[in-house]
């Protein structure tokens, strides 16, 4: 979910970067993919099959941020909680990446859940990511007032899940799934409350790694393959079918191909920008100062620009961008200092 302060960042990423993000969200919003995420990360679905979740428990068509509508523009026939844009005069506007309702089987009855899925490339964006996740859960709960319940009918509140997929986590967190939820703690005595009365929000973060490190059949491996910019479409199709029993539809195949094409285009653009900027600035400074250091500095500045471009548009870490640009390993520390 992106707030209004991130608008300028989206623009600076360029049309290719925005299209790449859009395709990622579309791929994640397919019911078969959501079903895998739900089974692996949500206790309500641990005993369900993937097909059962996809066909029986996901309600309606998931909404993605490109289809966001203002609350006051939503028809009363729209499912409550399915507005991807959450407006509040005092809290501002937030837009969810993917938002949908799901029905969870529990104790022989059906319970509504409100779930959003977020893709996050940076585990350390300048604030604790878990606080943002909990904030989004809170927003999904508070926004139910006036749609799901009114006045004092707090018994109608639906549970909210916020599930985050971090594509470039730090090494020590790769291939991990962590869940945060409200728990009952007995400080004095043992008087218990019904769990459904306090179990109202859960935040989950899925940290990806490499396919070779992921356990076959697990959600980290599936998402690593699905969102990879390095695996070609035919290979993705083969892995998803053989390892996860996912048969890509024609539309999914097209979007997987588009993702690979865009990633290659952005990579080539980054190379070209780096070469051009380095050549032009290097020659200009070299002529002005008459020294080889000018050309070297110009090349470094140009390559730094290419690293930044790949980090923004491809959502790569600094180290991944340098590897993609074939920067010598002994120069990594130099560019990392320049990026600060």
Explain this structure to me?
- Strand 5 and strand 6 (109-120) form a beta hairpin.
- The protein contains 11 helices and 9 strands.
- Helix 2 packs antiparallel against helix 8.
- It has 340 residues and is of the alpha+beta class.
Main sheet attributes: strand count, strand direction, barrel closure:
6 strands, mixed
Proportion of residues in β-strands: 15-25%
Give the count of helical stretches.
11
Total strand segments: 9
Uncertain runs with pLDDT below 50, 5 residues or more?
1-13, 66-83, 87-92, 282-288
Amino- and carboxy-terminal Cα gap: 26 Å
Q: Any key phrases for this structure?
A:
single chain, 340 residues, alpha+beta, 6-stranded mixed β-sheet, 3-stranded antiparallel β-sheet, 9 strands, 17% strand, globular, disordered N terminus
Layout of SSEs?
Blueprint: E1 2-3, H1 7-12, H2 14-28, H3 31-41, H4 50-57, E2 58-64, E3 85-88, E4 92-95, E5 98-106, E6 109-120, H5 129-142, E7 159-166, E8 176-181, E9 201-207, H6 219-227, H7 233-244, H8 250-289, H9 292-313, H10 318-324, H11 332-339
Parallel strand pairs: 6-7, 7-9
Antiparallel strand pairs: 1-4, 2-5, 3-4, 5-6, 8-9
Helix pairs in contact: 2-8, 3-4, 8-9, 9-10
Gist of the model:
The protein is 45% helix and 17% strand. The chain has 340 residues and is α+β, with helices and mostly antiparallel strands. It has a 6-stranded mixed β-sheet, sandwiched between helices. Strands 1-4-3 form a 3-stranded antiparallel β-sheet, with no helix packed on it.
């Amino acid at each position: 979910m992106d707030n209004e302060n991130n608008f300028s960042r989206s623009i600076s990423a360029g049309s290719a970067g925005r299209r790449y993000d859009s395709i990622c969200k579309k791929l994640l919003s397919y019911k078969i993919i959501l079903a895998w995420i739900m089974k692996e990360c949500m206790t309500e679905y641990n005993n369900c099959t993937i097909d059962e979740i996809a066909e029986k428990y996901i309600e309606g068509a998931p909404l993605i941020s490109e289809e966001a509508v203002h609350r006051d523009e939503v028809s009363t026939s729209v499912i409550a909680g399915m507005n991807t844009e959450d407006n509040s005069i005092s809290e501002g506007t937030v837009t969810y990446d993917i938002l949908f309702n799901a029905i969870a089987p529990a104790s022989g009855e059906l319970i509504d859940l409100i779930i959003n899925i977020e893709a996050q490339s940076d585990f350390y964006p300048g604030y604790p990511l878990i606080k943002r996740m909990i904030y989004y859960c809170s927003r999904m709960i508070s926004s139910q007032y006036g749609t799901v319940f009114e006045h004092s009918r707090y018994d109608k509140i639906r549970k909210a899940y916020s599930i985050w997929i971090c594509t470039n986590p730090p090494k020590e967190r790769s291939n991990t799934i962590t869940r945060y939820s409200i728990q009952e703690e007995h400080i004095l005595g043992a008087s218990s409350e019904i769990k459904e009365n306090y179990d109202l929000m859960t935040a989950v973060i899925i940290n990806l790694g490499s396919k070779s490190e992921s356990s076959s059949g697990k959600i980290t491996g599936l998402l690593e393959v699905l969102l990879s910019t390095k695996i070609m479409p035919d290979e993705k199709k083969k892995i998803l079918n053989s390892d996860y029993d996912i048969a890509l539809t024609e539309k999914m195949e097209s979007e997987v191909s588009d993702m690979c094409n865009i990633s290659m285009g952005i990579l080539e653009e980054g190379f070209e920008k780096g070469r051009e900027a380095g050549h032009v600035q290097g020659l200009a400074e070299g002529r002005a100062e008459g020294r080889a250091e000018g050309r070297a500095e110009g090349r470094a500045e140009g390559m730094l620009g290419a690293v930044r471009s790949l980090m923004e548009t491809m959502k790569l870490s600094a180290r991944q961008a340098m590897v993609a640009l074939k920067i010598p390993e002994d120069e990594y520390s130099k560019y990392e200092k320049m990026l600060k």
